[in-house]
Amino acid sequence: KENGQPSAAILLKQRPGSNAKDVIANIKKTMADIKQNSFPPGMNYTVSYDVSQFLDASIHEVLKTLVEAFVLVALVVFVFLQDWRSTLIPIIAVPVSLVGTFFFMQLLGFSLNLITLFALVLAIGIVVDNAIVVVEAVHAKMEHSHMGPMRATEHAMREISGAIIAITLVMSAVFIPVAFMEGPEGVFYRQFSLTMAIAIVLSGVTALTLTPALCALFLKNLHGDGHHQPTRLQRFFAGFNRWYDGLAGRYKTLIAAIGNRSVVTFAILLGFSVGAGLIGKSVPTGFIPEEDQGTIYANITAPSGATLERTEKVSNEVQRIASSLNEVASVSSLAGFSILSDGTGSVYGMNLINLKNWEERAASDKDLIRMLEEKTRHIKDATVEFFTPPPVPGYGNSSGFEMRLLDKTGSDDLARLQTVADAFVEALNKRPEITNAFTTFNVSFPQFVLHIDGDKAAQKGITADNAMSTLQTLIGSEYATNFIRFGQMYKVMVQTLPEYRAHPEDLMKLYLKNDAGKMVPFSSFLSVEKVYGPEQVTRYNMYPSAMVNGQPAPGYSSGQAIAAIKDVAAQKLPKGFGYDWAGSSRDQANAGNQAIFIFLICLTFVYLLLAAQYESFLLPFAVILSLPIGVFGALGFLLLMGLENNIYAQIAMVMLIGILGKNAILIIEFAALKHKEGMTPFEAAIEGGVLRLRPILMTSFAFMAGLLPLMFASGAGEIGNNTIGS
Fold it and tell me: What's the sign of the alpha-carbon dihedral 67, 69, 70, 71?
């Protein structure tokens, strides 16, 4: 039923390689055409579950973030450069690089999805960086050397073009190895990393060509000339400049005091490295975050032997309760089908609860599940499990964890498998990391075994094959032929009348024809035994299996739940029984250390590039050793925000290598130049640090401004946004 009305459910799944959005749009268009041309009066259709709703809402959120990031970045640039002409130049660089990125995405066959949109949001902050570095360097030349815009641009470009090339190479090189990751992570990483790499290379090209040209055309040397600004703004800028000069002075004093003391430097570095390691252990691990997708499933299992009508009553009761909640848009109910095991049978039922749009409700899907569990406690005629769809559609049947217990003993003793599964689930539910663990495996369905006495059957001229096919027709029905009447085709189904097949003993009153054409009663060679067994046996990798599902408990991550399950399995599973993972749990449990190796390869790439750039094997360490501080900050924020170290966090960590590298390169490039001019390494380091403080602060603040909307995003795709932003 759909919202209490009788209905027929049609389930549609897209084929691999197709675009979900296009497929769904075509289905909706086709359904509208069919309704207009074919539906009888009083008949309608609804779309109860639509993956594109979550996709569209998530993309809308990210696009909103894109605009907010753009505005915030412009604001930061304006505050630092204090001149609208200077602000305009980095802002022009953004669309130029993004439009170029779209062109290459089209060539690579990428779609505009959540991953590529995340990459574009982050790219805004980075694309602006290169342009900011150029504009700031031209400003510094005009201010300190009193040159015109044209000469200042030429001089500035001689100094910083090396740094921009190094930044572009390092930041794009970080993302190249990531594109070669395998498995599901590889799909996520590949699209993200290549989109980022393209945007960064294009921003580097823009910074070396378009930005200097715009500087020479647009900029005016206004240093010492403050008459063009309104007084209030001028006062604000004067205050800001005083604050910045004070900060730069204190910064210079600080690095002069500790820059030459290697013990202090390495103690700080060691402290942050140890801190990053400790926090890394405290941050819960995850895989793909379970977002609020606006849908809740209810899986209903009635007692063994229950009729379809009995299951339907429970399903209707769940529908009534769910429909009474303000946050629910529609509810479908279906008796006879299990969403978890894809099995059919009279004891199974399901409800598909479609929630209102994210803006129209305050409660999340998890809040509503808790409310539904509370309101359905009185239902004693069946067990009702509520859960959300898998994080990626088609990737398993539910959210949470999914696994199979395997009977490898070879005994095919299903009653033993049931005992082991029940004990295992009970042990899981005792763990604090796990909630709502259950198994759909059930061997208590009443069944009849028919014993044929072969000798007696042969004496009567009956074969087992003939006996069973006749019984199938009499009890179960058989399609015999068609006939046409009133211009309509009808099927002919052969079956005994209901009163002759109402009880098990009725089997003994039925007859069949032997090979001599005589009627023989089934009772003369057949006996019936009542037994109990499973309604369906699922084999997994050829072993009889029991499916186990559940959720991580509130406050625990999927990684912690999987670790707890492995622990329980090691302690509780008897000899001859094993387990395997299913759905997204399989990839998370079998992920291994691929990500760590990828990070190490990224670092090696960065090191080799910088070694070539600086013609030194030592200088790149100044870049690489700045990483633990950034990693400490990133993991610290994940811990503070109560987020997991999941696939999005790892994508952002790769990004971090590039960002930290960029900041270090700006200082090293300048310090190396001053060193060549005859300064001591210590003096050159201080000079490089102080002179490059402004562009580093500008680019860092601009990038952070671009991330703030992600960090505080809500609604669809909230967890992914918050994780990458943090």
Answer: positive
Neighbours of 194 (CB within 10 A): 22
**Rounded Cα distance, 156 and 159, in Å:** 5
Cβ-contact 66, 124 below 8 angstroms: yes
The answer to whether 521 and 511 are in contact (CB under 8 A) is yes
**In whole angstroms, what is the distance from residue 643 CA to residue 434 CA?**
18
Sequence length of the chain is 726
Q: Where are the beta strands (DSSP E) in 321-413?
A: 328-337, 344-355, 383-387, 401-407
What pLDDT shows up at residue 83? Answer: 79
Terminal CA-to-CA distance of the chain, rounded, Å? 44
Contact 666, 697 (CB under 8 A): no
Residue 435, burial from CB neighbour count under 10 angstroms (0-12, 13-18, 19+): middle
What three-state secondary structure class fits 110? coil
Helix-, strand-, coil-residue percentages of the chain, each rounded to 5 = 60, 15, 25
CA distance to 544, 601, 611, 644, 653, per residue, from 176 (Å): 44, 10, 18, 25, 14
Q: Which residue in the block uniquely carries the two structure tokens 């900011």? A: 132
Ranges in the chain, pLDDT < 70: 183-184, 222-230, 393-397, 591-595
- Tell me, what's the pLDDT at 435? 83
Query: For 246-276, b where at least 16 C-beta lie within 10 A, e where not — what string?
Result: eebeeebeebeeebeeeeeeeeeeeebbebb
Express each pLDDT in 286-326 by its tens digit: 777 777 888 888 988 888 878 888 888 899 889 889 888 88
477 vs 455: CA distance, rounded Å: 28
Strand ranges in 338-412 using DSSP code E only, listed in sequence order:
344-355, 383-387, 401-407
**Which residues on adjacent β-strands are paired with residue 452?**
526
Amino acid (one-letter) located at 299? N
H or E stretch including 670?
helix 647-676
> What per-residue confidence (pLDDT) applies to 222?
65
Of 259, 176, 165, 211, which Cα lies nearest the Cα of 665? 165
Token pair, residue 478, equals 């058989």
Residue 715: name the closest of 396, 413, 477, 364 by CA: 364
Q: Name residues whose C-beta falls within 8 Å of residue 263's C-beta, 6 or more positions apart in sequence.
A: none
The token pair that represents 416 in the structure block = 């033993």
Q: How far is CA 548 from the centre of its chain?
A: 22
- Burial of residue 390 (CB within 10 Å: 0-12, 13-18, 19+) is buried
What was the pLDDT predicted at 26? 93
Residue written as token pair 């379970």: 290
Cβ within 8 Å of residue 577, ≥6 positions away? 405, 406, 407, 408, 409, 417, 420
Cβ-contact 653, 636 below 8 angstroms: no
Structure tokens at 311: 């299951």
Backbone angles phi, psi at 513, to 5 degrees: -90, 135
Token pair 């027929």 is found at: 8
